[in-house]
Specification:
The protein has 487 residues and is mainly α. It has helices at 5-17, 21-34, 39-51, 55-72, 75-88, 93-105, 109-126, 129-156, 165-177, 181-194, 199-211, 215-231, 235-248, 252-265, 268-284, 288-301, 306-318, 349-353, 365-374, 378-388, 395-408, 412-424, 430-447, 450-464, 470-482. It has three domains: 5-150, Tetratricopeptide repeat domain (Serine Threonine Protein Phosphatase 5, Tetratricopeptide repeat), CATH 1.25.40.10; 161-249, Serine Threonine Protein Phosphatase 5, Tetratricopeptide repeat (Alpha Horseshoe); 369-482, Tetratricopeptide repeat domain (Serine Threonine Protein Phosphatase 5, Tetratricopeptide repeat, Alpha Horseshoe), CATH 1.25.40.10. It contains 25 helices and no strands. Helix 5 packs antiparallel against helix 6.
C-alpha cells in the first residue's frame, strides 16, 4: 500500500517536536523507500542525519539529490547540494569531482582547479595512482583550455601582461572613478597581493577620493590597504595608512578601526590621539553619548587635560546634562575653562567624580559594545556583544564583531567559532555576509586549517561573483596544499 506522504511528514514533524530524532528518520526512510524520487524528502533526511551525527548517510542523501540535478542540467542547484555535502565531509571524493565538473561547465576554471587539487591530495594520501593520474589529466585539460581562450587577447596586447600591477592599479582607479566600488576595491586588493610595495599608492588613491568628497569610497581603498598590511603581518603599516586617512577626513569607522589597531599594538600615544579624534568626530556628528564615553576615558588617563575636559563638557551638553546632578547647570570648576566655553556652562563636578563608574547607555548593548571598542576596552565590549546577541535581529552582527574581536586579540580558536556562527546566520546585507566568510577563511588559514579556509573561499567566490582577492587566495591555497604545480 502506497505511503501517504502528507501523513508521513506530519508524523515525522511530530516526532521531531517530541525530541524523537530516530523515529523521525525512520518515517522519512519509509517514505523515500516508497517514493524514491521525492527529492525534497531525501534532502530533509540528509539534514536529519547531520543532526544525528551520521555524516556518511547525510552525504549519501545530499549527493543523491545533487547527482539527479546534475544529470538534468540544473548545475547551480546541483552545485549548492554538492557544497552542502562537502561541508559535512570536506574530503568526500565523489563530491569534489562533481564540484570540479560543475565549475568547469559553468566557466569557473579557478574553482574547478581548486576542487581537483583537493581531490588530487586526497588520492595521493590513499596511494591511488590511477586516481592521481586522472586528476592530473583533468588539470592539464583545464589549463590547456584556459591557454587557448587567453591566447587571442594576449596576442593583441603583448606589451602588458594581464597581471601587471601597474596596469591593474590604473584599471582599479578607473573603476573607482566610474563609481564601480566593488570592482575597484577588488582590483586594489589584487594589486597589493601581487606587489605589496604599492601600498602607498593605494592609500593615496583613498585620500584623494576623500578630498573630492567621496569619503566612503576613499575609506574603502584605505581599508583594503590596511587589511593587506595586516595579512602581511605589518601592523605598523596598517596603522599608518588609517592615520593618514583620518587626518584627511575624520571618518568614524576609520577612526574606530584605528583605535582597535592601536590597542592591539599597545601604542598608548597614538591610541590617545586616535581616541581624541574619534571623540571629536562623534561630537561633530551629534553623537554625544558615544563621545562622552571616550572623553571620560581620556580624562581619566589625563585629568589635567583642558582638551579632554572640553570634550566632556560638549558631550554632556549634547545629551542634555544626563548624569549630572539632576541636570542642573552652574559654574565650571576652576582650571577647567577654555576658549569657547562660555555657551557651555555645565557643572562637571559630579561627572568628573563619577568617571569610571558611569558607563555607556544601557538600552542598546550593541552600541555600548562599539563604544567600549572605541575606548579600548575589549573585555567590556565582549560582554556587551554577548548581551546584544540575545536579540534575534542582532545575532549575526554581534557574533561577527565578537569573532573579529577575538581574532584581533590572538584567540583564533574563539574567533573562528564566533565568525562561524555569524556565517550560519542571516546577514543584514549580502556584503556583510561576504565579509564574514572572507574573515572566517583568513582566521582558519592562520589557525592552520587551510582545507576549511579553501572550501569557504570557494563558496564565497561562487556566491559573490568575485569578492576582493578570493580567487587569488583560492589559487594560492590550492597550490600550497598540493605542494607543487601539477604541470
Amino acid at each position: 500500500m502506497p505511503t501517504d506522504r502528507e501523513a508521513a511528514l506530519k508524523k515525522a514533524e511530530k516526532l521531531l517536536r517530541q525530541g524523537k530524532l530516530d523515529g523521525a528518520i525512520e518515517e522519512y526512510v519509509r517514505l523515500i523507500d516508497d517514493q524514491p524520487r521525492d527529492f525534497n524528502s531525501i534532502n530533509a533526511l540528509g539534514d536529519l542525519y547531520v543532526r544525528a551525527g551520521d555524516p556518511d548517510r547525510a552525504v549519501a542523501q545530499f549527493t543523491r539529490v545533487a547527482d539527479h540535478l546534475f544529470a538534468e542540467g540544473f548545475l547551480s542547484k546541483a552545485q549548492a547540494l554538492y557544497k552542502k555535502a562537502l561541508k559535512v565531509q570536506p574530503r568526500h571524493e565523489h563530491t569534489l569531482m562533481q564540484l570540479a565538473e560543475t565549475a568547469s561547465r559553468q566557466g569557473l576554471p579557478v574553482d574547478a582547479r581548486a576542487y581537483l587539487r583537493q581531490l588530487l591530495e586526497r588520492r595521493r594520501e590513499r596511494g591511488d595512482e590511477r586516481g592521481v593520474a586522472e586528476c592530473l589529466a583533468r588539470l592539464r585539460a583545464l589549463e590547456e583550455s584556459e591557454s587557448e581562450s587567453e591566447a587571442a587577447p594576449a596576442a593583441r596586447s603583448p606589451e602588458a601582461p594581464p597581471e601587471d600591477p601597474a596596469r591593474l592599479l590604473d584599471a582599479a582607479r578607473e573603476e573607482l572613478t566610474s563609481g564601480n566600488e566593488r570592482q575597484g576595491r577588488a582590483g586594489l586588493m589584487r594589486v597589493l597581493t601581487l606587489d605589496p610595495g604599492r601600498h602607498g599608492a593605494v592609500v593615496e588613491i583613498g585620500i584623494e577620493l576623500a578630498r573630492q568628497g567621496r569619503i566612503e569610497s576613499g575609506f574603502g581603498c584605505v581599508d583594503v590597504a590596511s587589511d593587506a598590511a595586516l595579512l602581511g603581518g605589518d601592523l605598523t603599516r596598517a596603522i599608518d595608512a588609517l592615520a593618514a586617512f583620518v587626518r584627511a577626513a575624520p571618518h568614524i569607522p576609520g577612526l574606530i578601526k584605528l583605535v582597535e589597531l592601536c590597542v592591539d599594538a599597545g601604542l598608548d600615544g597614538p591610541l590617545r590621539e586616535a581616541q581624541g579624534q574619534l571623540a571629536d568626530a562623534y561630537l561633530d556628528s551629534g553623537q554625544g553619548a558615544e563621545a562622552r564615553v571616550i572623553a571620560e576615558d581620556l580624562l581619566e588617563q589625563d585629568p589635567e587635560s583642558e582638551a579632554h575636559a572640553l570634550r566632556l563638557r560638549r558631550a554632556v551638553a549634547l545629551v542634555g546634562g544626563e548624569g549630572t546632578a539632576g541636570g542642573t547647570t552652574g559654574g565650571v570648576p576652576p582650571g577647567k575653562t577654555g576658549a569657547g566655553d562660555a555657551s557651555v556652562e555645565i557643572d562637571l563636578s559630579e561627572v568628573l567624580a563619577g568617571i569610571g563608574s558611569v558607563g555607556p547607555p544601557a538600552d542598546d548593548p550593541y552600541a555600548r559594545a562599539l563604544e567600549h571598542l572605541a575606548a579600548g576596552r575589549p573585555d567590556e565590549a565582549a560582554a556587551a556583544l554577548r548581551e546584544a546577541g540575545q536579540a534575534p535581529r542582532m545575532q549575526a552582527k554581534a557574533a561577527a564583531e565578537l569573532g573579529r574581536l577575538y581574532v584581533r586579540r590572538g584567540d583564533l580558536q574563539a574567533g573562528v567559532e564566533w565568525l562561524g556562527r555569524a556565517a550560519d546566520l542571516r546577514p543584514e546585507t549580502p556584503e556583510d555576509g561576504f565579509a564574514v566568510l572572507y574573515e572566517l577563511a583568513e582566521a582558519l588559514e592562520r589557525l592552520g586549517e587551510p582545507a576549511r579556509a579553501l572550501a569557504i573561499l570557494i563558496d564565497l567566490d561562487a556566491d559573490s561573483g568575485g569578492y576582493r582577492d578570493a580567487r587569488a587566495r583560492i589559487e594560492q591555497l590550492a597550490r600550497a596544499r598540493t605542494g607543487s604545480d601539477p604541470r
